Amino acid sequence: MPLTDIALRNAKPAEKPYKLADGGGLHLLVTQNGSRLWRLKYRIDGKEKLLSLGPYPTIPLAMAREKREEAKRLLADGVDPSAAKRETRRVEAVAVGDSFRTVAEELLAKMEREGRALRTLEKVRWLLGLTYDDLGARPIDAIRAADILPVLRLVEARGRHETARRLRSTIGIVFRYAMATARAESDPTSALRGALTAPTVTHRAAITEAVALGALLRALDAFDGQPTTRAALLLLPLLFPRPGELRAAEWSELDLDSAVWTIPAARMKMRRPHRLPLPRQAVEILRGLHPLTGRGRLVFPSVRTVLRPISENTLNAAFRRMGYGKDEVTAHGFRATASTLLNESGQWNADAIERQLAHVDADTVRRAYARSEHWEERVRMMQWWADRLEGWKGEG
């Protein structure tokens, strides 16, 4: 029996959602929270589908019936009404600036205003660039999981499983931003969890045995490359920072008289400022480098331009020149070296070691109460570590 305006106005929520049918597949869905939504059930190519027509009373009964008849005309021409609706929204969205690319660029601008690290912005921009050919011009609210999966599969087909995983996550961030700005209703990437090949976890190569470490330290001493590269190589085992934090170090961050290096939050992975005590040996290396690069901003400028630091490839290439393969030594691996040997020594508080590594405790409650930097212990620990490295270097 066809619906009436009185029946629609009197439709009240119940414990479970229910439908009020008008005929021809048109019905009103009444939800538990009181929403009243027009839906049209239809079949095309043997498959049953559902088309959303809008909320009642914004869409009155007469208009809902008009939309039903319009959908029937499309079906008679072999056109899927849902596909036609998405195409209409695509055209409208591009016109008003709600394409995937527009929203993604907005998000990048927001991240830049928030002071995200340049390297982070470059990575996100590069990942999003992989999507623009297929998704860039499409309205973000019309993109489904089935549209995103082929984009990810192209990356995966090149053997870049980790990149595909990160791309899915980055696309999801764009959708969540679109949801927050009322331009998307859901994040379709959540439906793609488990759809991609899981990347094989490979830990960065690191030497964690004292004799082998001593041999590496002797090789570093004998390195005869660029002075900036040599200084950075010598500081890696002494300070065990993240390579990017070391390479981009600025002279303004260093207080050599107080033997302290303060890395600003903008350059830290966890977006928190980080102080490092400098052992005597590190101060000597930096004082020796200062006459060469101290008039500029960067401690380790590239040989091509003083405006950019040396690259991580420069450091790892130096290890290859010394005869160490990528499965033996990497610039990042000195963090694992120091963490392992400092913990094995049994002389230092594990929290002091973690603080020196700039790791953040995953336990938020514990982190709230463990605000101490363990500074005094770290000062002693770093000098002990530098002296111990000298000892291992001299044992060969």
TrEMBL record:
UniProt KW keywords: DNA integration, DNA recombination, DNA-binding
Organism domain of life: Bacteria
MF GO annotations: DNA binding
InterPro entries linked: DNA_brk_join_enz (IPR011010), Integrase-like_cat_sf (IPR013762), Integrase_catalytic (IPR002104), Integrase_DNA-bd_sf (IPR038488), Integrase_DNA_bind_dom (IPR025166), Integrase_recombinase_N (IPR010998), Phage_int_M (IPR053876), Phage_Integrase (IPR050808)
Chain ranges of the Tyr recombinase domain: 202-386
Entry keyword annotation includes DNA-binding: yes
A Pfam cross-reference name: Phage_integrase
Family as reported in the entry's similarity comment: Belongs to the 'phage' integrase family.
Protein name, UniProt field: Integrase arm-type DNA-binding domain-containing protein
The organism of origin for this protein: Xanthobacter aminoxidans
